[in-house]
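Per-record layout

source: Floridaenema fluviatile BLCC-F154
name: DUF938 domain-containing protein
length: 208
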Amino acid sequence: MTDDRQFAPATQRNREPILEVLQRILPSSGTILEIASGTGEHAVFFTPRLPGRKWLPTDIHYLSLASISAWLKYSPSDNIYPPILLDVCENIWAIELENQYLNEITAIVSINMIHIAPWAACLGLMAGAGRILPENGILYLYGPFKQNGQHTAPSNAAFDEMLKSQNPEWGVRDLEEVIAVAKMQNLHWRETVSMPANNLSVVFEKLG
């Protein structure tokens, strides 16, 4: 039998600090929609440690969806849904068209996505969160950010250059610009938390 599980070394390093923030800021019930779940390692680690919630992993890549499904077989949990295909750049997301899970979603989590994607993905994420999240719903972002237009560490500057060498549309985003885009979708910036390895957790809340 083949094993479709993929492995991301960064997951082992960041999952505990991220979990600490999620346990504090996520609603105590409902479904957490994860955007760009990648390998699926975060999903299977978080779900047993977030009782009372359901977790819905998604990705745009079929290889990632296969990896997530493989991780769910390897590490099953009662509170995680099978992964679904989702492209944040679509004007209407697939889950909106199917009206599936919508009434359950109380938060959206996106880890290490907006810098390894075109800027349009950040715009699409904010627009989708503005449409889908209920009042007081939470949007959580994790990753490296520039602040006041400046990198916060030399390692982040080097990472930014590497990303842009792979795709000119990729790159570490400016936090203030992300907050401004979120505000346009009625998403209020709530807090920024410093994380290991010069990353940030950024928390938004949907206004009524």
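summary: The first helix runs from residue 9 to 25. The longest strand covers residues 187-195.
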